[in-house]
Amino acid sequence: MSEKKNNTVYTRKKAGKDLIQGRFFSLDFFKRNWYYVVFIVAMALAYIGNKFSSQRSIQELITLKTELANAQTDLVNASAKYNSMIRESQMVKLMSEKRLDLTPPLDPPYELNSH
User: What is the DSSP letter of 111?
Assistant: First the structure.
């Protein structure tokens, strides 16, 4: 029983010493476990690739949302300008039908302050 205990301690000490000195991952280790090493490296590369792809997709989504908000603002502005032009043209048409001597103003309206 004591031999078993001493053997275990010796193996642990030897494994620790081999790890510190860099002999733990020897050529023999890679020959015996090459499929595990390849699998771990492939999984690490897949994880990195997936993370990169996800970040790129999120960035594209943010860019597209910004473009959509800008396009919606442009649409509202264009719609307001169009409605204003229609109202103005309807007023000019109505003034000409009623034969009024009125012309649309060239200057924009301004606000008077009463202090």
Answer: P
Concatenating the DSSP letter of every residue in 55-85 gives HHHHHHHHHHHHHHHHHHHHHHHHHHHHHHH
Cα separation of 76 and 6, whole Å?
Answer: 83
> For the whole model, what pTM was predicted?
0.51
Whether residue 53 lies inside any domain: the answer is: yes
Q: Which range of residues forms the domain containing residue 76?
A: 32-96
How many CA atoms lie less than 13 Å away from 39 in the CB half-sphere?
4
Residues ≥6 apart with Cβ < 8 Å to 102: 95
Residue 62 lies in a domain: yes
Instruction: For residue 75, tell me if it sits in a domain.
Output: yes
Q: Give tens-digit pLDDT for 26-51.
A: 777 778 888 998 999 999 999 999 99
